[in-house]
Design goal:
Strands 1-2-3-4-5 form a 5-stranded antiparallel beta sheet, covered by helices on one side. 19% of the residues are buried. A hairpin with a 5-residue loop joins strand 4 and strand 5 (88-94). The protein is built from 6 helices and 5 strands. It is an alpha+beta fold.
C-alpha cells in the first residue's frame, strides 16, 4: 500500500512537471506595436502635400503616414500612404472621428499591409546592405530621449553625444579612446551604439574582423 501511494505521488508530480513544461513551450504571440512604433506627422517626413487631399496627416508608422479625410456624407476615411512609393490602402471608414487612443489600433493594421515599409526603429539589414549613419544616430537619440526616460533613465546630452561619436567611428572603421566623467552613462552609450551598428551592418567587414 505504501509503495502504491508513493508511486502515485511520483506519477502526479511527474505529470504536473510535464504539464508545466508543455505550458512553457507553447508559442507566445507578442504585439510589437507600441507607442514607440508611431510618431506625430511632420511636414519634413517627405510626403507630398498633394496626397493629402481635403484631409489631414495624423502620424507615421511602418514607412506610411495615416491620412484622415471626411466625405461629403460625413464619414471619416482613414488611409495609409507609403511615404516612399505613394501606394495607398484604406484602413477604416467610420461615422465618428478617430480619437488619439485609437492610433495604435490603426498602426497595427498598417503593420499587416503589403504596402508597409520599415517600422520607426527597424534598422536590420541584409548582407550587402547598410543603414545610413544619420538614421542610426536618429534612432539612438530617440532611444535615449523617448524610450529610456519611460524607465526612469535621465536624459544626458553627453551620453547621446558619446553614442553618436561611437557610431561615427564604427562607420569609418576607426578606433577611439573616449573619456567621460562618472555618471555620463558610458555603458549604455557604447552598447546601444554598437548594437545599432551591428544590426544595421555599418562597416560590416570591420565589425566581423577579430
Amino acid at each position: 500500500m505504501e509503495n502504491t501511494t508513493s508511486t502515485n505521488a511520483i506519477e502526479r508530480e511527474r505529470s504536473a512537471h510535464e504539464s508545466t513544461r508543455a505550458e512553457i513551450a507553447k508559442p507566445t504571440t507578442i504585439n510589437t506595436v507600441t507607442p514607440h512604433t508611431i510618431k506625430k506627422y511632420e511636414p519634413s517626413d517627405g510626403v507630398p502635400e498633394r496626397r493629402l487631399g481635403n484631409g489631414a496627416f495624423l502620424f507615421t508608422a511602418y514607412g506610411c503616414v495615416l491620412s484622415e479625410r471626411q466625405t461629403p456624407s460625413g464619414m471619416y476615411v482613414y488611409t495609409a500612404v507609403n511615404i516612399a512609393t505613394g501606394k495607398t490602402a484604406i484602413l477604416s471608414r467610420r461615422e465618428k472621428k478617430l480619437a488619439e487612443s485609437g492610433f495604435l489600433g490603426l498602426a497595427a493594421k498598417i503593420s499587416e499591409l503589403p504596402i508597409r515599409g520599415d517600422s520607426l526603429l527597424n534598422i536590420d539589414k541584409k548582407p550587402g546592405e547598410s543603414a545610413k549613419a544619420e538614421r542610426l544616430t536618429e534612432i539612438a537619440s530617440h532611444i535615449f530621449k523617448e524610450i529610456l526616460p519611460q524607465y526612469d533613465y535621465t536624459i544626458r546630452e553627453k551620453q547621446i553625444e558619446l553614442a553618436a561619436h561611437i557610431l561615427d567611428v564604427i562607420g569609418r572603421g576607426g578606433l577611439t579612446l573616449a573619456e567621460s566623467e562618472v555618471g555620463t552613462g558610458k555603458t549604455h552609450a557604447y552598447l546601444i551604439a554598437a548594437t545599432l551598428a551591428k544590426r544595421g551592418r555599418v562597416n560590416d567587414f570591420h565589425l566581423s574582423c577579430r
